[in-house]
Design goal:
4-stranded antiparallel sheet, 38% helix, 20% strand, single chain, 11 helices, alpha+beta
């Protein structure tokens, strides 16, 4: 094994775990402890911050330095990073241009076998119909929120109206929250935190957050309800504290199952025969649920519950009144 090969192998090992006993490194590299010490010194001269650790065997730890040194990725890690960079524009974090430059840098130094894999995995992130446009976020704000979460420091911030400009600040006392997690969904970014004034969990839209400095005091982290951020936030999006729609109902549609499936969302489609199927879905209200079935524009039968049947009657009366009003206005 040449010196260069051994150094690259040593660096790769140091990146895979926090602490490495010197004797174990020597065995993995099939060399002596003395050679390992010399190679560690060479890596330090190249800008890597490697600290000697105390212990029965003594060892080494690769720490963060003042600058980002060259990194080593295995094949799967390289392709994973490249794919993540391709999809970066979809998250709306204001890093599109930097992601494109980083992807170009990685691709330029890729071995041909990985470049072929990456070219075969060209990804275009496309939002779904009805998704909100990606936010135009300040990357500095994201970093500020992430740092407060990491350091467990209370956030003080203004929460501006949706139509406010970047420089608008409300003439109100700042909000105070114990930040818990940053969440992204369909191009939108949210901060999940415990609101100290309202004594409840809140989801704040990050594009409306204007942090104040300095941060408030440190806090002990609280457990997120349900014990799962994904479940809890998904529930809040559905108007509930649990990841379930408050209103669920079933209808039989005069359509085959394969024509309904592409538009069922998180609903359940059950084929009845070649021409009909049952669709069970949920929504935040019975009226919204009844209206959602109307998009299929076919005869249907309500299976239940009674609240859904009543909502159909309410919507039918409302639509009938709207139609009659429009007809009256058109008459000379």
């Amino acid at each position: 094994m040449t010196t260069t090969t051994r150094l690259l192998r040593l660096l790769s090992l140091l990146q895979t775990r926090r602490d490495w006993p010197g004797s174990l490194l020597a065995r993995r590299l099939e060399t002596s402890d003395r050679t390992v010490r010399r190679d560690i010194d060479r890596l330090r001269e190249m800008g890597y911050s490697i600290r000697a650790t105390m212990g029965p065997d003594g060892g080494y730890r690769l720490d963060a330095g003042s600058e980002l040194p060259p990194l080593l990725f295995d094949d799967d890690q390289t392709v994973a990073v490249a794919i993540a960079l391709q999809t970066a524009p979809a998250i709306g974090a204001g890093i599109e241009e930097a992601a494109i430059r980083a992807l170009g840098t990685i691709r330029q130094v890729m071995p041909s076998r990985l470049r072929h894999r990456l070219d075969a995995l060209e990804v275009t992130a496309v939002g779904r119909a009805g998704d909100a446009a990606p936010m135009n976020l300040s990357f500095d704000v994201l970093v500020t929120l992430a740092t407060a979460i990491r350091d467990r420091e209370t956030l003080r911030f203004d929460y501006v109206p949706r139509d406010a400009t970047a420089d608008d600040r409300p003439l109100l006392p700042p909000r105070r929250a114990e930040p818990s997690h940053l969440v992204t969904s369909h191009g939108r970014w949210y901060l999940l935190g415990w609101d100290l004034d309202r004594e409840d969990w809140r989801l704040y839209s990050v594009d409306r957050v204007r942090p104040r400095t300095p941060n408030g005091p440190s806090f002990a982290p609280r457990a997120v309800p349900c014990g799962d951020v994904d479940e809890f936030v998904s529930g809040r999006f559905k108007g509930s504290d649990v990841n379930e729609w408050p209103c669920r109902g079933t209808v039989i549609l005069d359509l085959p199952a394969h024509e309904v499936l592409p538009f069922a969302g998180d609903g359940t489609v059950t084929a009845i025969d070649g021409h009909r199927c049952a669709l069970e879905v949920g929504s935040w209200s019975w009226g919204a649920l009844a209206a959602s079935f109307g998009r299929f524009e076919v005869p249907m039968e309500v299976v239940g519950p009674p609240e859904l049947a009543a909502a159909f009657g309410t919507i039918a009366a409302r639509y009938r009144a709207t139609s009659e009003s429009a007809t009256t206005r058109r008459q000379p």
